[in-house]
Amino acid sequence: MVMTLEQIKVAMNDKVFNKIVDIFYRESEILTLLPFDDCVAEGGGNSTLRYTYVRKVLPAVAEFRKLYGEYTASEATVEQKIAQLAIMGGKIQLDRVLNKANGRFNNFAYQLEEHIKAVASLFNFTLINGDAVTTAEGDHPEFEGLDSMLAGTSTEYNAGGKIDLSTMAALKQNADEFYEALTLLAAETDADALLMNTKMISKIQTVARILGYKTEAEEAFGKKVITLDGLRFIDMKNHYTVAEGQATAQAVIPIATKTIGGQSTTGVTDIYGVKFDVNDGFHGITMNGSHVIESFLPDFTSPNPVKDAELELIGATVLKNTQHAGVLRNIKIA
Predict the structure, then answer these.
(1) Bridge partners for 53 per DSSP
(2) Is the dihedral of CA 13, 16, 21, 26 positive or negative?
(3) Which helix (H) or strand (E) holds 258?
(4) Whole-angstrom distance, CA of residue 184 vs CA of residue 145
(5) Beta-carbon count within 10 A of 154 CB
(6) DSSP state, residue 171
(7) How many Å apart are CA 302 and CA 279, to the nearest integer?
(8) Global pTM?
């Protein structure tokens, strides 16, 4: 069954689950739009959590023929792909006495929300940057991200060039070129949304203001969303890691240094376009019968003083048709 998290939330009709999903919504905008197919089933001793599917690479072609002539045989080009479900989550431990001592500050609720933010951050990061690791059998069993999926495809645009928006002078000079490239990405992929980082959204809003376009819309529940000609922009935000007591933030869609045309260029980023479609586009997968997100909450009235709580997301993303996702490379914004 194909469902979004909003549909799963309505079907569950569980207050705790609904609150958890609402936090995921705040932290990962793409999870409000991404359809999940619960198509991965365990059976026959199979516990690999793999999903095999066919990715359309090139369409079939048609041609004219003369009377008594023959058509040239052709076929659509497809690839067999294997996606591996990722299991991501975290654990909370809390002494029941500390839970009783809650005042205005509810430590358990705080820790749960922070773990939800961490899972959402990891999902966002892997959706873009996940690597496909080739095994000895030749398949790709990891949670593959869009960066890897689109490398070398016909919808990878501007891979050998750059568009400079790094200064106001450069932005004004290149606004039309950038807008044309952006609309081409959206049109060629029939995109429902464009994925980018926070600084890139700010640059696009400046371009839109210069060119006279509106970039804000309001959803039914009053939330402001960034759009351009009705196309939704999704801020993929930051991914946080902690090592040796230090937290490090990095943009999910990085601002990096690349070699372009033989020259090292700093401050370069990308924009991804996706069409959400479980049959012919980009979508999520999860286990059969799963709610994508699972929570395991403690009973503070039962024995054992230290209580565990766990939060888990089981899923991955797949691309059924490379013509329905694309990437605009090498936009210099810094």
Answers:
(1) 81
(2) positive
(3) strand 256-260
(4) 22
(5) 12
(6) H
(7) 47
(8) 0.88
